[in-house]
Structures
1.
Amino acid sequence: MAKKKLKFKESVGIDIGSHSIKLVHLKKLHQGFKLLNYEIKSTVPEGVEYTLSDLSSDRYIPILSGMMRTMKINPKKIKHIVSSIGGENTSLKQIKTIFLPDEELESALFFEAKKHLPIGGSEMVLDYQVLSIEEKTNNMNILLAATTKDVLTEHSNILSGAEITPGIVDVESLAVANSFALNTVMEEGVYVILNLGAHKTNMVIYGPKAKFFARDISWGGFNITKDLMKKHNISFEEADKMKLEAGIVEEKKTEEKSMLALDISEKSTHEQIALEVKRSLRFYVKEAGNSDFRKILLIGGTAKLNGLVEYFAEQLNIPTEIYNPYANLEMPEKFKNKQDPQLALALGLAMRTE
Ligand SMILES: Nc1ncnc2c1ncn2[C@@H]1O[C@H](COP(=O)(O)OP(=O)(O)OP(=O)(O)O)[C@@H](O)[C@H]1O
Ligand SMILES: [Mg+2]
């Protein structure tokens, strides 16, 4: 986590997800950015059912290089390339410590991190940012980011395989928060951002003065396709098609029916996600003493699922919308009306200036 202002003319944000790679290429303007180009490319086999363990991380390299070529990005010429790591073995957490001078901070935080973060000891790689120092108590609020050497090595192997020199590497949930904070005029209160991917959902609670919270929920669009497969006894390909066309709107109707028939079978994915979000909100209210939730904002590919906004709004009782982080982004004519919440994280990466 760099803290200095960075100088650059163009930037590239690379979001390597389990389902697809999202790449955005921006030009820095005096104020804000201009979108030069973007691309979203799936990295999983089309239309056939797969499990994550079938997929090796090698598959990313040819796809990423291909995207760089078609977008005519020369990685040697662009100084500001930002990518992200996420999933298991990455973690981001706000903690409070007594005031410590710089020399002592790092080693003290290493011990703190072991207490707070679910990541194994000697393999842990740590980064931190001092958010504020409380005047009265002299306590420090610190954002701790941690991962393992293995996660970082695998990530750099993918980038260097595509002839990209790894630049800044952020934890996904931080990029999610940035994508929101850099494109919103915020009121007081707290905002809940859900980055709904294929195999997981990053949940971030963020507010200008609120305690930062992040966790991953281990369900996403892949599980929604599987739900449809089971429910309608159809193939993965048919279920995926049904998901993209109809979403979960039809589902809700059949759910009501099955409730009447007392068929209390397993919960569906969107129900599970809503329940986990609810649980985390309750935890946050207790831990941070703040329940001023203003909005739930959905980003990621699965944010586009038909019926999801309405479902979350109803279940969580907080105004919910799809979030398009394009406020500080000038869109050339050819991209007008192409705002896509699936690009939000990549935009958050490319837009960071410090
Ligand atoms: N219009 C749509 N309606 C519903 N789902 C969609 C739509 N477009 C894409 N998706 C789903 O979004 C998911 C991909 O989103 P995204 O690119 O955010 O995931 P990812 O970053 O690759 O995954 P993860 O973050 O879990 O590793 C897939 O499950 C895909 O089926
Ligand atoms: Mg993702």
2.
Amino acid sequence: MKLEKISEGKAALYVSKGAKISKELEVFYNPAKEFDRDLSVLLVKAAKKKTVLDLLAASGARGIRLAKEAGCKVTFNEVSKDAVKVLKKNLKINKLKSKVYNLDANRFLAQSYDKFDFIDIDPFGSPINFVFNSIKRLDKNGILAVTATDTAPLYGVYKYTCMKKYGSVPYHTKISHEFGLRILAKAVIELAAKWNVSLTPIFAHATQHYYRIYFQHRRSHADELMKQIGFIHFCEKCKARFSSGFNFQQSCGCGGKLQSAGPLYLGSLWNEELVKQMESEQIKVFGRTKYHNFLAVLMEESRINIPYYFEIMEFAKIEPRTDAVIKKLNEIGFLVSRTHFSDKGIRTNASISKLRELFDKA
Ligand SMILES: C[S@@+](CC[C@H](N)C(=O)[O-])C[C@H]1O[C@@H](n2cnc3c(N)ncnc32)[C@H](O)[C@@H]1O
Ligand SMILES: [Zn+2]
């Protein structure tokens, strides 16, 4: 196995040399996910979590960073023998002593008696098959983090794959990444509810390639979460969108046919206090406010509990600047924020007809 030594954050890492990113890699490492690992370091520090399970560890990149940058005690698990060899080498060069298991993740979870206050599920594809067993290993008030790289089913390209994996019907349109993220949230919440545990989303982000959600464990609030599961409806004719619980009307006011995505989670995906705390941890972790702009957008999103956004070109004839749209809606008294899903998108309680009236796309 040809290896090269790289560094990420405060970790030194051996990874497969000059390799094309694919799941065929002997030791999977994707430099593009540094952003995601950076955020997990910030979040774990902000939430003061100390005992970590890196369940699908590969080179150990995430767990090693959490040990070195957030002072955590990390347990590693990884099914590939080759990857475990490299992971152990990586622990050595980072002067870390940790427990390392070489098991299928579900086997590890089923046979372990340990509890963790942060569990990370970062697989190839869907995380869903590892969630149910993880819940039992999560400490009271612990955080479960899941990554899904199977975004195409979740945002509606492969409807039946989404139905099989997540028990929801997706819908493919411009704003579907948010639907996909909320379907993933619902699926995890639902599995935890079977243990009568509530897993409340506290931080989430989406890119084209992966979705990531962090959930906070609480006992017996599962009923409250169930009330926030429903549908988002989208009218293909007038582009109206709205959410509902399980009883919903079948047609739009304009007479157009409604398409629906769901069931999905309609509640907030961000805890404002946590995002603030992450903002203030940046200097300590990176020596600079590396994610100030990104966290500022999430902070805005956390304050407006509307489970969808609008692309500006859906309602404006000539594309105005996003900040000009926000200013105008604010002045009139609508709730409005930017969204990390799209820099040309806004989250607002204004209706599509009001937006068209204001921005001239009659
Ligand atoms: C996307 S990589 C993990 C990346 C790593 N967390 C990082 O930040 O670099 C997924 C890893 O899961 C491992 N894996 C796949 N199926 C597994 C299973 N059933 N149990 C344990 N590990 C598994 C793969 O060998 C691979 O190393
Ligand atoms: Zn309509």
3.
Amino acid sequence: MKNTPQNYDWLSITLHWLSAVVVVGLFAIGLWMVDLNYYSQWYKPVPHWHKSVGLCLALATLFRLLWKHLKGHPPIEGARWEVMSAKLAHGVIYLMLFGLFFSGYLISTADGRAIEVFNWFSVPALGEIFPNQADIAGEIHYYLAFGLIGLAALHALAALKHHFINKDNTLKKMLGVK
Ligand code: HEM
């Protein structure tokens, strides 16, 4: 049953920090790989890793939301406006993540080819569902990626403000320390 714990559990903490590292890594690698030329040794493997890691992150994020729903989560601390804006920011971060997963899927599968996830399993393609799919999804993916990194930076600053200015338990809860 859902309850209201006082701290994040180790699985939520691990998923949070792993997701944070993977999001920043995918962003950096994404920016780098679009400028690779055909003759580079990285031209083929890097997009393959980007897609594979992105799809694993999509599965981990789905699991994270399910886990959050089952376990409950500690109350957000601070003034009413801080609680409201934190909830809004967390919701928008999740929405942007799913927007990125979905637009990434639409870019990769527009040519009808399935996505091979580390050669472990493949995600079937739906092909081109609408005209110029790869270009349109590519634009959305690009702007969402910058939006997510900007919002995540704001979110990190808010966590540091809670820690150093409000001196509350917000960051400690996500670090698993008391
Ligand atoms: C790309 C990077 C990041 C992403 C995508 C991200 C995403 C999230 C999300 C979605 C939540 C809500 C958790 C829930 O569903 O209950 C959260 C919570 C939290 N994050 Fe991050 N985060 C990132 C980086 C950071 C960084 C760098 C810090 C610290 C400097 C941080 C500190 C926290 C804290 C303290 C919470 C708990 C907030 C609370 O319960 O009041 N995050 N993060």
